[in-house]
């Protein structure tokens, strides 16, 4: 008899609930509670949520429930923007089927893997195919994958698909599928450029949005660490040692930084692995396997791993650098504090990066300022918020005159003369700066003349 837990009322297969129980997944998350009932009924879904909210199960559980195991044809397709995320979803699917692995066939189809071997693999007609859009589209063209019986199409991390330029391939896959289709789209954000795609294919979708005000998981404690005059990588190493985490992800902004930082950690004798774009496909797959098996205490990663990759047991995150796109801060620190667990995040920053920290604070993220001293992490005086800079280096008086000139110029400008207007404003600002410089020069000459007397 299947043990009772929060998933039993969805009327899932007993072997699925048993697998969830063994994985200690006993209560649906917010997004799972909102999406699973509608998805089981075949409705189109738009799920907008941050990472770490359990969205993968929200589409896998109803998919497994609705698959017809007697029909030996492809019935569902899941596309992801990266090989790593596709692999991660496939692993989670296998964990759901672990109590009955022969119930349905699944296949992972991504670039970087032997193409002929993949073609051979899909000839056995997997009911669920997971992969990257480019390779799935290739196998459509080769007629190795036949779309005629597909009734479920899932697009994961849709905003990243858009950013990486994969939306045309995602669209072409959709065009090849039957008209009667359940589409489920999941994304951290819903950009304006994604809207035409959603309107084109989705029919009265169920929209589920996890609290937009909660930027990061509630139990993550955020820290800033001032770099000051020190070497950033050396400071990251000292911080990593002082924290002594269970598993710590260290995010860098570039692959070069990741390679160099990994070398520093290895030289210091730390148990470290890495995951970044310069690793060959086979090595990246092996790296994810080793990371998930908790073989490393420290893992150096780029933003390649920030979206969707679920690494269990991450206790700490260190940002070696602040990401240029601040949305990625949320995705990075979301690797810890997963599913209501506690987590600690540390971000190294220099004075000129104060503005980025300010903008994160404006999103509701609270930081504690700490430093590493004598191998210990301790709280230091509060970080000063950066002062806003004036757009032009002119005095208040000159700025007032400039505003007046700009207002007059604006009144005189006729439609179609925007460039002339902008040029005039620049020239006005230039004249004011020259006046000020001349004024400063005269004042200095007078002061020097007074001294010589």
Automatic annotation (TrEMBL):
Record GO cellular component, one term: ribosome
Biased composition range(s): Basic and acidic residues: 424-447
CDD domains: DEADc, SF2_C_DEAD
Boundaries of every DEAD-box RNA helicase Q domain copy: 5-33
Alphabetized Gene3D superfamilies for the sequence: P-loop containing nucleotide triphosphate hydrolases (3.40.50.300)
Keywords: ATP-binding, Helicase, Hydrolase, Nucleotide-binding
GO MF assignments: ATP binding; hydrolase activity; RNA helicase activity; RNA strand annealing activity
Pfam annotation, one family: Helicase_C
SUPFAM superfamilies: P-loop containing nucleoside triphosphate hydrolases
Biased composition (Basic residues): 409-423
EC identifiers of the protein: 3.6.4.13
Start and end residues of each Helicase C-terminal domain: 238-384
Motif Q motif location, chain numbering: 5-33
Residues covered by region (Disordered): 384-453
Gene Ontology BP terms: response to cold
Secretion signal, residue range per the UniProt entry: none
PANTHER family: DEAD-BOX ATP-DEPENDENT RNA HELICASE 47, MITOCHONDRIAL, DEAD-BOX ATP-DEPENDENT RNA HELICASE CSHB
Record protein name field: ATP-dependent RNA helicase cold shock
Organism phylogeny: Bacteria, Bacillati, Bacillota, Bacilli, Bacillales
């Amino acid at each position: 008899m299947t043990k009772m837990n929060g998933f039993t009322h969805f009327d899932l297969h007993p072997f699925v609930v048993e697998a969830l129980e063994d994985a200690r997944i006993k209560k649906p998350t917010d997004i799972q509670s909102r999406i699973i009932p509608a998805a089981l009924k075949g409705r189109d879904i738009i799920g907008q949520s941050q990472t770490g909210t359990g969205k993968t199960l929200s589409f896998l559980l109803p998919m497994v429930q609705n698959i017809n195991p007697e029909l030996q044809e492809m019935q569902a397709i899941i596309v992801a923007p990266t090989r790593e995320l596709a692999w991660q979803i496939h692993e989670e699917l296998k964990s759901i089927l672990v109590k009955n692995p022969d119930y349905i066939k699944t296949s992972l189809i991504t670039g970087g893997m032997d193409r002929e071997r993949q073609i051979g693999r899909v000839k056995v007609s997997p009911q669920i195919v997971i992969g990257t859009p480019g390779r799935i589209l290739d196998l459509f063209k080769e007629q190795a994958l036949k779309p005629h019986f597909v009734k479920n199409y899932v697009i994961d991390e849709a905003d990243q698909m858009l950013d990486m330029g994969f939306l045309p391939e995602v669209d072409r896959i959709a065009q090849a599928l039957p008209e009667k289709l359940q589409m489920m789209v999941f994304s951290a954000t819903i950009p304006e450029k994604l809207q035409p795609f959603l309107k084109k294919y989705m029919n009265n979708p169920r929209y589920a949005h996890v609290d937009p005000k909660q930027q990061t998981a509630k139990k993550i404690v955020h820290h800033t660490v001032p770099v000051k005059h020190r070497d950033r990588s050396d400071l990251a190493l000292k911080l990593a040692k002082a924290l002594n985490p269970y598993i710590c992800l260290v995010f860098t902004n570039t692959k070069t930084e990741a390679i160099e930082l990994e070398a520093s950690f290895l030289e210091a004798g730390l148990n470290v692995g890495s995951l970044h774009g310069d690793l060959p496909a086979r090595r990246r797959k092996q790296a994810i396997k080793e990371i998930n098996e908790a073989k490393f205490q420290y893992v150096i990663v780029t933003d390649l791993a920030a979206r969707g990759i679920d690494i269990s047991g991450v206790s700490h995150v260190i940002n070696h650098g602040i990401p240029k796109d601040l949305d990625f801060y949320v995705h990075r620190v979301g690797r810890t504090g997963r599913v209501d667990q506690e987590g600690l995040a540390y971000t190294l920053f220099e004075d000129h990066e104060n503005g980025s920290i300010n903008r994160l604070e404006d999103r509701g993220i609270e930081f504690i300022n700490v430093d590493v001293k004598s191998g210990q992490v301790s709280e230091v005086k509060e970080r000063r918020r950066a002062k806003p800079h004036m757009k032009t280096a002119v005095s208040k008086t000159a700025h007032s005159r400039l505003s007046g000139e700009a207002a007059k110029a604006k009144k005189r400008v006729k439609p179609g003369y925007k460039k002339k207007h902008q040029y005039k404003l620049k020239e006005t600002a230039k004249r004011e700066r020259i006046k000020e410089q001349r004024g400063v020069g005269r004042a200095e000459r007078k002061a020097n003349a007074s001294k010589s007397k």
